[in-house]
Amino acid sequence: MLSRVAERLYWTARYLARVEDTARLVSAYTHLILDIPVGVAPKWEVLIEIVDAKETFARRYKQRSERNVVKYLLADADSPNSIRSAVRCIRENVRTTRDALPGKAWELVNEMYLLVEAKSIASVARANRFEFLENIIARVQQIDGLIGSTVLRDQGLFFLQLGQFIERADMTSRVLDVGDAIVIERQNKKLTDVPTLWANLLESLSATSAYRRQVGPELEPNAVFNFLLLNQQFPRSLLFCINYIEELVGLLKPPAGLLRLIRRVVRKLRNFEAEHIDLPELRALIDSLQRDIAEIDAAIHDTWFKVDAKV
């Protein structure tokens, strides 16, 4: 496989995961705002912090209002963090790698692109937002299902899955990084909306049903963090993602240094004790994990996506 094809498959999967994650994040946060009394709800700029876009957002918008934040994340064609921008990238990557994907994939991606171009601006309004986001999530899952059920179990699929799980690990770490500080701060102030915030943290990562099934209905801080950091069965927990990344990288015959890097991150997670949450310690761990994920991503690019790389 050519390195450029491998890279485009990797980024196709990353952008698909990013579109779904962003849609879930905005949907969950909108529900949260509707459930919490006016005046005590967290600010909309929290979503900008999660995607680490303070500077790029500030260059485009003066006010951090609901409309501006939602527009930036859903409909702004020039925002590198928007669903609209990501779908355009997906379409271009699929267009140039059509021989490596099922024929139906191009049709589904193009349909999603046309939907986003036609309706993303209108989705900024709350009246249209939920229907649009649910439609986007369903379309991404349809594409993922097609790929998972029809693509050969070879290098192409491995790079697709590698991109998907790198993006999932990145988003989980970002949500935890911002969410833990907000939730614990409000818990320390003994605000009554804390259970709603815990539930929203799980919902933003599609973790509510899995958490309730394995842990139960009680939303205890230690249990929530343990589940999202260390659960080995939930496919969006950090440990699950890193374990799966290690497995995929191993199938691609990597240099020893890349596997050592990934295994170091696995050990870091396994050695973390989350029985008694200490906010500074937790923040330090998550900051460290975010750097590790970026380092793994850079190593993947250096190993397989350079012009002279052999895939």
Descriptive overview:
- The longest helix has 34 residues.
- The termini are close together.
- Helix 1 packs antiparallel against helix 7, helix 1 packs antiparallel against helix 9 and helix 8 packs antiparallel against helix 14.
- The radius of gyration is 19 Å and the shape is globular.
- The protein is mostly helical and 311 residues long.
- The protein folds into 2 domains: 151 residues, no CATH class; 159 residues, no CATH class.
- It is built from 14 helices and no strands.
- The mean pLDDT is 91.
Radius of gyration: 19 Å
Which residues form runs of ≥5 with pLDDT under 50?
A: none
Structure annotation, total helices: 14
Distance between the termini: 6 Å
How do the helices and strands line up, and which of them pair or pack?
Blueprint: H1 3-35, H2 45-50, H3 54-60, H4 66-74, H5 83-95, H6 103-119, H7 126-150, H8 155-188, H9 194-204, H10 208-214, H11 221-230, H12 238-251, H13 256-270, H14 279-305
Helix pairs in contact: 1-5, 1-7, 1-8, 1-9, 5-6, 6-7, 8-9, 8-12, 8-14, 12-13, 13-14
Overview in brief:
This protein is mainly α and 311 residues long. It is built from 14 helices and no strands.
